[in-house]
Amino acid sequence: MVTLPDDGGIEEGIAYWWVGACRLLEILDLLADVGGPALDARRTALLGALLRYPQRMHLSDDWYVNVGDAPARLTADQPWQVPFRWGVRLGQPETVAHALAGARRQRSAAPPRAGLGRALTALGDERWCRAVTADEPDTSAPWLTGESWLPRLQILVARETAGTTDGLAVAVKGGHNGEHHNHLDVGSYWVAANGRPLVVDVGRPTYTARTFGPDRYAIWPFRSDWHNVPEPGAGQQPGPAHRAREVRVELAPGVAGMTAELSGAYPRSALTRWDRTVRLVRSDGVTSPHVSVEERWEGRTENVALHHVLAGEVEYGDGWATVTAADGNGLVMRWDPRVAVASVVRKDLDDPILGRIWGDVLTRLTLTVRSPGAQGSLTVRWLLSGGSERIPEN
User: Fold this and answer.
1) Which site in 49, 193, 310, 331 is 20 to 30 Å from 37, CA atoms measured?
2) What are the beta bridge partners of residue 158?
């Protein structure tokens, strides 16, 4: 049995909204049509929040914040008429706009692979067909809010400017390692440049018999060392007890961020505390917009590493790195070279699902702290490439 949280979140990720929540909405329509008012549960309070989940995870085009086993890109076979119809019913115009944008992107009001029943329902909806095929479609993006916070799932998504994919966007999660379709990723984060994710979550490869067996976490995309999380001498551990603690958010006109204490996600050791704060800082006319990731730890550990999974061409040196996508979007990464040294591992992708999304290769850039000590700190900052850099000193 799966219980839906009242923030409308789906812990398995965006793809599972379509195979779970979307089907629930279709079932509720069917029950109401067959049973009339006695079986009409379409005004349940949770449904409005559930309906907003895809738009809250949207980065740009077919790119989404992907948690759990969800891929970072949607396939072109989604029944967008369902969120459109429900958005109209519940008076959520931003949901309607998101659904129309999704359908126009896949260039179909009724994609065949979505199934015959869905196709017939879509084609029989005159309002939907007219809206999708409008000569002058609305190109605004009202669903791209400045920030979205899902407190039950502990996921924050924030962007530099509401209503547009231009500029920086960041997502960060707390949560626990007993979530459905879990990856060992408590405290992980994403960064996108003009809507293109460059600090990324790999997602899941093709399912096999190992995926849901005892060897799940031997598969590299599910391990914490292939997520954007710290490694204080050991990787994260599975199970709901391994979770983020003391999670709090900061939401203001100039900044959106989340802080969490992460030591509970790791095996018991001499590490007593790890505080991570991920913040999107918007421009104030003096400081350039940037994403800062501040780490503070207590307790002696022999090794401290910070992993960053990057999608694009990577270059790096003392205190800096760049990642540039094939479309030209890029990020600059900065840190104090006196505190940590960088190394990279390139991962060739031979899985068809991962290859469709990321191409031939992903790169993991790891910052290794030179002298961890009994306590320490390190700050990483991300900026759009090609602009002037006016950020606080480390």
Assistant:
1) 49
2) 147, 170
Per-residue pLDDT band for 388 (boundaries 50, 70, 90) equals: low
The tokens of 75 are what?
Answer: 């396939």
**Do 261 and 154 form a contact (C-beta atoms < 8 A)?**
no
Q: How far apart are CA 113 and CA 120, in angstroms?
A: 12
User: What pLDDT, in 10s, does the model give residues 63-73?
Assistant: 999 999 999 99
CA distance linking residue 311 with residue 357, whole number of Å = 10
Q: What is the largest CA-CA distance in the chain?
A: 69
Task: Kindly report the backbone phi and psi dihedral angles of residue 358, in degrees, each rounded to the nearest multiple of 5, phi listed first.
Answer: -110, -10
* Residue-wise pLDDT tens digits, 241-261: 999 999 999 999 999 999 999
Q: Tell me how far apart the alpha carbons of residues 310 and 201 are, in angstroms, rounded to a whole number.
A: 9
Token reading at 352: 């068809």
Nearest to 160 by CA among 147, 151, 150: 147
Distance between CA 8 and CA 76 in Å, rounded? 23
Q: From the CB of residue 78, how many other CB atoms can be counted at a distance below 10 Å?
A: 25
Residue that has been written with the tokens 């992903």 in this structure: 362
pLDDT at residue 302, as a whole number: 81
pLDDT tens for 159-214 read 999 999 999 999 999 999 999 999 999 999 999 999 999 999 999 999 999 999 99
pLDDT at 126 over 90: yes
Strand (E) or helix (H) holding 307: strand 305-310
Apex CA 27: angle with CA 23 and CA 33, to 5°?
Answer: 145
Q: Is the pLDDT of residue 33 over 60?
A: yes
Nearest to 218 by CA among 199, 235, 202: 235
Unique residue bearing structure tokens 């990483």: 380
Q: What is the mean pLDDT of the chain?
A: 93
pTM for this one?
Answer: 0.94
For residue 49, the one-letter residue type is: A
- Non-local CB neighbours of 196 within 8 Å, separated by 6+ positions: 59, 60, 63, 325, 327, 329
Q: How many CB atoms lie within 10 A of CB 91?
A: 9
Alpha-helical regions (H) of 112-186? 116-123, 126-132
Sign of CA dihedral 378, 380, 381, 386: positive
